Amino acid sequence: MTDTPKPATLHLGFFENFETVAGLLKDSGARRTDSRDFALDRPMTPAQVVALLQLLQYSRADANTPVRLEVPRLDERAYAARSEELYAWWGTIDKKPWLAEPLPEGGTAG
Q: What pLDDT digit, counting tens, does each position of 40-61 carry?
């Protein structure tokens, strides 16, 4: 039996602008599980992640804070096991291929 990770869940409280909240929920790819609960349990596109972030930002600006995001508990061991891979990934910013490109004739380095 494989260990299925618990999905992130959005819980909705009272909100005034139905169209905005419903539209952002739909755009996030959230799947309805109850009258005011939605699951985020599928791979998300960048556009869906942006919609989720916009929804959370919109919620924080509302006096009622209508959206609460519940995420599964973090398992730090999963990252510790990938330590070397993560250090290698982190170091990729030090590689600046654009510095190896020759400057245009008569050009200067920005």
A: 999 999 999 999 999 999 999 9
